[in-house]
Amino acid sequence: MPESFKLSIIFVTSNINKAKEIENVLSTYDISIVVSQIKKREIQSEDIGEIARESALYAYQTLKKPLFVEDAGLFVKILNGFPGPYSSFVYKTIGVDGVLKLMFGQSNREAEFISQIAYINEEGSLKLCRGSCEGTIAEEARGCGGFGFDPIFIPKGCSKTFAEMSVVEKNMFSHRAKAARLLASMLLEEYK
Amino acid sequence: MPESFKLSIIFVTSNINKAKEIENVLSTYDISIVVSQIKKREIQSEDIGEIARESALYAYQTLKKPLFVEDAGLFVKILNGFPGPYSSFVYKTIGVDGVLKLMFGQSNREAEFISQIAYINEEGSLKLCRGSCEGTIAEEARGCGGFGFDPIFIPKGCSKTFAEMSVVEKNMFSHRAKAARLLASMLLEEYK
Questions:
Q1: What digits encode the pLDDT tens for the residues A36-65?
Q2: With contact defined as beta carbons under 8 Å apart, do A111 and A84 qualify?
C-alpha cells in the first residue's frame, strides 16, 4: 500500500472487476482497499440492500474488522425486474444472448443497474450506500470491457454500452461508482 | 387431525400447492402435516440441497421442533440449468412465456425437476431426501393444474404436462412426491 494512502478498508469479494472499479473511485479520496476472498453467504431476496446487509454481517462474524461488501443487479422494466438480484446466475446460465432473446421485439427497453454497498465499522454498526444508473438494453452486445451484462447496457444520455467504456469512463455513470462515492464520504467523515 | 393419523410433522412453507402435494403422499403412510408459515430464510446457492438444509436449520432455531422444508427447481439442460434454484423468482418475473421464448427453436428440450426435503428430528439432526423427475419442455403451455412451470413440463414417458394432471396423477411422477416418499420411510423408521 503506498504511504500516501491514509485509509485502508477490507472489501469482501471474489469479483476482480468490481474491486478494480471501486478501487478507482476510492483512490481519488486517498482510500485503498484490501480484497478478502473469504466465502460469502448471500441470502435470496428481491432487495439488493437486504442481501448486501446480511452478507456483510456474515463476513464480519469471521473477520471481526471494518469491511464492506457490494451487491448489484440489473433490473429490466418490461421483464418485471428480471434478472435483478440473480444477475450473476442468469449471466452464467442464459447469458447476454438469453436476455437479448427475452427482449427481442420489445420497444420498451428501459433498465436500471442498482448497487448496494454494506459497510460495517469498528463498532460493528452497519450502513448502506445505494447507487443506481438508469439506461436501456441495447439491441445487440457491444464492447469487451466491464463484465456481466455491461455489453448490453447503455446508460441514459450515452450512446456507448458500459462494455465500450474504460473503467474511468464507466465510473462517471455507474451505479457502483455512485455507491462507492457515498462510501468514501462516509469513511472520510468517520475517520476525519 | 383425524384420530387415525399416528404421526404429525411441521412443514414450513408458504406454498399451499406444495403442501397439498406432500400431504397427499404422506397421508398414504398415515402421516399428517401441520403447515407453518413462519418467514423462511433461503440462501443463494446452485445446490438445492444446501438451500433446503440452511433453510431448515434457520426455521428450527425459531420453532425448536421436528420440521421439514422443501426446495425445488427446474433445470433446463440447454440453458445450463436455468432457472434452477431461482425458479420461483424467474416464474414471477419472465414467467412461463419467458422460458418458452428462451427455448424457441431449440431441439434439445431436456429438463429435470429436482426437489430436496430437509428434515430435522427431535434431536436437531438433519437429513436430506432428494427426488428428481426427468422430462422435456413443451412447445407451448398446456393445462391449469399445479403451479409454477408445470404447464410446460412433460415428464418422461408422458404426453401430458404436470399442469394437465390431478395432484394424485402428478404425484405418480413428480420429484416432490419422490422426495416425500423418502421422508415418509425415514419418519416411519424413526418412530416405529
A1: 999 999 999 999 999 999 999 999 999 999
A2: no
Distance of CA A127 to the CA centre of its chain: 16
pLDDT digits (tens, 9 = 90+) for A121-161: 999 999 999 999 999 999 999 999 999 999 999 999 999 99
Q: Do B89 and A93 touch (CB under 8 A)?
A: no
Q: What is the ipTM of this complex?
A: 0.93
Residues of A in contact with B44 (CB under 8 A): 42-44, 51, 86, 89
C-alpha cell at A109: 427497453
Specify the pLDDT at position A4: 55
DSSP secondary structure of A73-134: EEEEGGGTTEEETTHHHHHHHTHHHHHHHHTTT-S--EEEEEEEEEEE-TTS-EEEEEEEEE
The CA distance from A37 to A17, in Å, is 13
Write the pLDDT tens digit of every residue in A66-115.
999 999 999 999 999 999 999 999 999 999 999 999 999 999 999 999 99
Helix (H) or strand (E) holding A55: helix A48-63
| Residue labelled with grid coordinates 438444509 | B53
Q: Over chain B, what HEC string results?
A: CCCCCCEEEEEECCCHHHHHHHHHHHHCCCEEEEEECCCCCCECCCCHHHHHHHHHHHHHHHHCCCEEEEEEEEEEHHHCCEEECCHHHHHHHCHHHHHHHHCCCCCCCEEEEEEEEEEECCCCCEEEEEEEEEEEECCCCCCCCCCCCHHHEEECCCCCCHHHCCHHHHCCCCHHHHHHHHHHHHHHHHCC
To the nearest whole angstrom, how far is the Cα of A93 from the nearest Cα of chain B?
5
- How far are the Cα atoms of A99, A107, B87, B116 from residue B98, in angstroms, in the given order? 10, 16, 12, 25
Residues of A with CB under 8 A from a CB of B: 41-44, 46, 51, 79-86, 89-90, 92-94, 98, 101-102, 104
Smallest CA–CA distance from A91 into chain B, residue:
B82
